[in-house]
Design goal:
about 525 residues; alpha/beta; Rossmann fold; 5-stranded mixed sheet; 5-stranded parallel sheet; 20 helices; globular; binds iron/sulfur cluster
């Protein structure tokens, strides 16, 4: 008689870390499974904090939320851009490959450390010992101020306890953070995870005694710390706007070196230029600093921002008025010219999308849609309300599908967006600009911001003729499955695609039914 071994289904709550062994789990394993595993493995507290700091729609399906690159890239980049700071990744080899590739693509010019693991080291706890060993080996005070260790998806889900690492080795600060894709929605917010952890560390140092002054010494004037990476000329422009109030621009957080963290905490107020730095804001508020949202973009934006920053910094109204009038004079002529003519849709994942939207509207553009991968926070509410009052549709946590739907709906003369949006726009013969490379990489604040944006946007809209010429030239080479020059044009087989789709749906339903038992 044939005997079969009965397979008993494990109860859903008993998610074992061994189910997460090895590579290949993560992005494709389903966030729910990893989230449940991480909570069971002792990461409930950190994940609950992430859920509060970086809220997302619980009911959103995979296509109803922003499609981010691996979020850990945000933290990795912050670490790699800091002087005398080394970063070690702990995660699946495929994730680490992708992250190091991307960081070198963006010019990291520095090695990324990696502690590999296998099923055995993961489930026996040896991985943590390996990480501890690596940290001790790397913590050289001659070379480093800080050493950052980032747990990626699988080690986080398996509960690798970075919090048990020593806080400091030979004077080198050790910062261990969990940055799983299933807990931190976008790479923008992952920047906040590391920057917030560093500020927390630096604040504790300040509380425990005197700390080193910044390299160039303390600023002569009270400073406003700037939250969010920006074009290098922007802090200079902001300092000019603040000068009549007797204020200056403080360090930009994430900072470029450890001592700047102290200088940032030493500010009179904080400008949350990018609105998603929730953990950093928590640290600044714990240090007693007021935080002001939005930024000095466009005429109205600059006027509002100077008023709010002046008030938050305890500046007398007469001085605030002097600063506002100076900005008004400098910008009025430029803005009054309102030279941008055309309809624009805009989307991105940098966090400055609403600011760019405001600036474009003030420059005369007919902006219909602003999509951002970032969530609504207290620091972008004012910008969102301002845009809505001008008839602009604002979409937080925008998915690619929503960005594309907006482009189809509003038929813009220019689509500013992420790579896939720009790709679709080009296909549709619509002039387009990459948000990250072409908009984020130029000044946005004050007079310089308005002048520079007007120029690039006008030039892009003016490209419509070139697109039309290209279309008439290449138009005959086909589209979709028939793109290219063929001896015999491929025949489309929509029925094959439909059949594959049907089979995949059936498989999915079957799996769901099995899960429900
Ligand atoms: S670490 Fe990044 S690449 Fe790896 S599974 Fe998580 S989200 Fe995906």
């Amino acid at each position: 008689m044939t005997r079969t071994i009965p397979i008993a289904k494990a109860p859903a709550e008993q998610v074992s870390s061994t189910t997460l062994e090895g590579d290949g789990m993560g992005c494709h394993a389903g966030g729910e499974t990893l989230l449940a595993a991480a909570k069971q493995a002792g990461k409930s507290e950190v994940l609950a904090q992430y859920a509060k700091d970086y809220p997302r729609n619980e009911n959103a399906g995979p296509h109803d939320q922003p499609q981010s690159m691996c979020p850990a890239f945000g933290s990795l980049r912050v670490g790699l851009r800091m002087k005398r700071t080394a970063t070690i990744l702990s995660g699946s080899a495929c994730c680490v490959y992708g992250l190091t590739f991307t960081s070198h693509f963006y010019g990291a010019r520095r090695s990324v450390g990696y502690v590999p693991f296998n099923s055995e080291t993961l489930v026996t706890g040896k991985l943590f010992e390996d990480i501890r060993e690596a940290v001790h080996a790397q913590a050289d005070p001659e070379k480093l101020d800080a050493l950052v260790i980032i747990n990626l998806c699988v080690p986080t889900a398996s509960g690798v306890p970075l919090q048990l690492l020593p806080k400091e080795i030979n004077g080198v600060r050790i910062i261990g953070i969990d940055v799983p894709g299933f807990g931190v929605p976008t790479h923008a917010e992952a920047k906040d995870v590391l920057a917030g952890a560093m500020l927390r560390y630096a604040r504790q140092e300040v509380l425990s005694g005197p700390v080193a002054a910044p390299q160039g010494g303390r600023k002569a004037l009270p400073s406003v710390a700037l939250l969010g990476e920006m074009f290098p000329a922007d802090p200079i422009g902001i300092a000019q706007l603040l000068a009549p109030m007797g204020l200056t621009a403080g360090p930009v957080v994430p900072t470029r070196e450890w001592r700047e963290l102290y200088a940032a905490l030493d500010c009179v107020s904080v400008a949350a230029i990018h609105p998603f730095y929730t953990a950093c804001v928590r640290e600044f508020e714990a240090a007693g600093r007021s935080v002001v949202g939005s930024a000095p973009v466009g005429l109205e934006g600059t006027q509002d921002w100077l008023q709010n920053i002046g008030q938050a910094s305890g500046i007398a109204q007469e001085k605030i008025d002097v600063a506002r009038n100076q900005a008004l004079q400098a910008m009025q002529g430029l803005m009054m010219a309102k030279p941008i003519q055309g309809r624009i849709t805009l989307s991105g994942y940098e966090g400055s999308e609403l600011l760019v939207g405001r600036l474009l509207v003030e420059c005369g553009a007919d902006v219909r849609y602003v999509g951002t991968a970032c969530p609504a926070t207290p620091w972008n509410q004012h910008d969102a309300a301002w845009l809505a009052a001008k008839g602009v549709q604002v979409q937080f946590r925008a998915s690619l599908e929503q960005d594309l739907a907006a482009m189809h709906e509003y038929q813009p003369d220019l689509a500013i967006g992420t790579t896939p949006v720009v790709q679709k726009a080009k296909e549709a013969c619509v002039p387009s600009l990459y948000f990250t490379n072409l908009i984020s990489a130029r000044p946005l604040m004050g007079v310089a911001g308005a002048g520079s944006l007007i120029q690039v946007v006008q030039a892009a809209i003016g490209n419509q003729n070139r697109f039309d010429r290209m279309k008439s030239f290449f138009g005959g080479t086909g589209a979709g499955h028939a793109t290219g020059v063929w001896q015999s044009v491929p025949v489309d087989r929509p029925e094959f695609r439909a059949e594959t789709k049907r089979q995949l749906e059936r498989l999915q339903k079957k799996r769901k039914a099995e899960e429900m038992g």
